[in-house]
């Protein structure tokens, strides 16, 4: 019996058992079947935990209750639910009346605003240098300069935490001592720690800005540039009136994306000093994480996370609407 | 062209470029000097260019000082200490590979006994060989790190991540690129959106994820973690591979269809072989997801299943950071990523032209 006859017989049986209209539907939507496994897996791990976070935020979940064997069945999400009970909006009320939450939210927004401004200035500056005709070998330098992007985040962030080590050993302290000052306990002071977060975030994210800006700069029309030169426009005049308008859109696009990344920054404060000193610098995602895993308040932690998602969602909608992000996807 | 040929061609080109560059530069310099002597090139102009280039080189170095610094510390041996600055300066005072030996441990082929039975006969024989040691770590350091164990865990997780992800992504990318179906463009836009916001939402739902994993009793399960990584890798890599497949001309497929090949055979024998470079690219990206992810891994894995990033962090989790050992560990962990990245960089830059949604 040849292999193809087995295939034929399987097909016959398939045609005999599956009704024709079902077969037609399957035929018609077959490409969708190829997409579905990935889509389902992604949705399972992206949307289900998100929905479950919403559920947890309305309960008094904590390790003592949530890991117990629950009622089971449909209402118990087939055993997923523990012994936690509904508390309505209690978590949200508790969170919104807690000053540490508002402190955390304020610090997060400050972090986003400062780091995006720094990243854009720094990224565009580097991109300008790296496309300048005066600099020879700029292509090679470009490929070296975006190395920080390739390094694992946990690697770079732990290195930076060593740089800001309060011991003499830290690179930041060596620089300070070299300049004639005494050594600093960088991460024990609130604003010093905040500044060190900013510097690290800038270092981690500038390669992304550089890549986007360089490709935008290369698209700046040479003719326009030459025309401006002939008209006697100086360097800064040309930069402001020719370069900036043509790179504005892609840089905006990159800035919005990187703002979203800054808003959910977790590793930097976590690795540096757990958002310290005294929880003063807990960025919002870390704040929710600490509430859940350090203070065992899963419900309150989930409420914080959902507030963060709401804020970032609102920000993205405004950004998409204002910055016309969708056009950015179609190409600058 | 097989993937191996494709890669070896690329590498050969890169090496050739590197070897030929100095000669080119020398010619450039000779030309410039000649021009200045004859007065066709303005020396002031040359001086400006040289100064600008030198300043940029210094600037690049300053930017990358953190990486250079960790490299220097790693070369100072195991005992680079917290309270002396001389072992952490920018100019190395001594070279000592002990920290690297501590990370790698013994380099050896394990000894074994293999029994071979020839079927249908009674002949049985054994081959045994002793443990062959190339480098005995105990000659240099007192103890060795857990790096080999973390490495095995990372490899295990990354391997299964790649397997799961490929099974989901390759058919989907093909369907996106070559087939028409309801909601195709909407899904594609959704995927592109989630390449950007997915990571943030993933962290925001970390509490629920941990609760779900715990309730189902699958914490510390490396396969579940691998499946999670694979699922999270779907949007970006499907989009990337779809973009690559779009660039493959359809004429070959049309010819195969004319010859009577079934749709499955067209996909399997025409499109997939042509898409190999694209598949190799997403292979790297997917592999690196498992290699680099830290937050979820440290939350759900127990020490015996720690991956490399979690192991790295556990080194500094104590009060006293062994900087020499930490640096060597970190460098060994990160260096493959950098090499892969340097090699794949131009393709990544191409991918960022944001043109991938057309069609």
Summarize the structure.
The complex is a heterodimer of chains A (332) and B (359). With 332 residues, chain A is an all-alpha fold.
Description:
The complex is a heterodimer of chains A (332) and B (359). Chain A contains 17 helices and no strands. Chain A has 332 residues and is mainly alpha-helical. Chain A has 3 domains: 1-57, no CATH class; 60-88, no CATH class; 92-329, MetI-like (MetI-like fold), CATH 1.10.3720.10. In chain B, 68% of the residues lie in helices and 5% in strands. At the A-B interface, helix 3, helix 7, helix 8, helix 9 and helix 10 of A face helix 2, helix 3, helix 5, helix 6 and helix 7 of B. Chain B: The chain crosses the membrane at residues 50-77, 98-120, 155-176, 188-213, 225-241, 279-301, 321-344. Chain B: Belongs to the binding-protein-dependent transport system permease family. MalFG subfamily. Chain B: InterPro entries: BP-dep_ABC_trans_perm, MetI-like, MetI-like_sf. Chain B: This is Carbohydrate ABC transporter membrane protein 2, cut1 family.
